[in-house]
């Protein structure tokens, strides 16, 4: 029962990570980039993608920055969960 709960939690985390990444990609494509690849010049905020920059508001720039960080977090959690579940599958649930 406990192993099934762990697997269900991992599946949920992977689902959230995938959805978060898809939303991030859609928003970045729509806006023309993301804040981590962007820059701030003289109080103007630019999202960046492949050397091209799109000026946006400070609020949108901040949103993009934090959404990018959230992708790093959810993907890290999914990776750690995959390692944990994979290890338990190899060595058994009592290890």
What order do the SSEs take from the amino end to the carboxyl end, as H and E? HEEEH
The helix-and-strand class reads alpha+beta
Give a count of the beta strands, DSSP E runs of length 2 or more.
3
Radius of gyration: 18 Å
Shape: elongated
**Count of folded domains:** 1
Number of helices: 2
Which stretches are poorly predicted, pLDDT < 50 over at least 5 residues? none
Strand share of the residues? 15-25%
Q: What is the first-to-last residue Cα distance?
A: 15 Å
Strand order of the largest sheet: 1-2-3
Q: What features would you describe in this structure?
A:
The protein is α+β, with helices and mostly antiparallel strands. It has one domain. Helix content is 67%, strand content 20%. The protein contains 2 helices and 3 strands. It has a 3-stranded antiparallel β-sheet with strand order 1-2-3, with helices on one face. Helix 1 packs antiparallel against helix 2. The chain is elongated and about 55 Å long.
Short description:
By secondary structure, the protein is α+β, with helices and mostly antiparallel strands.
List the helices and strands and how they pair.
Layout: H1 2-31, E1 34-41, E2 44-49, E3 52-56, H2 58-91
Antiparallel strand pairs: 1-2, 2-3
Helix pairs in contact: 1-2
């Amino acid at each position: 029962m406990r192993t099934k709960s762990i697997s269900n939690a991992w599946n949920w985390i992977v689902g959230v990570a995938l959805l978060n990444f898809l939303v991030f990609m859609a928003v970045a494509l729509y806006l023309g980039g993301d804040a981590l690849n962007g820059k701030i010049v003289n109080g103007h905020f630019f999202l960046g993608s492949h050397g091209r920059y799109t000026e946006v508001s400070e609020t949108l720039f901040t949103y993009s920055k934090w959404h990018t960080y959230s992708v790093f977090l959810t993907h890290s959690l999914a990776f750690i969960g995959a390692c944990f579940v994979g290890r338990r599958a190899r060595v058994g649930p009592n290890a």
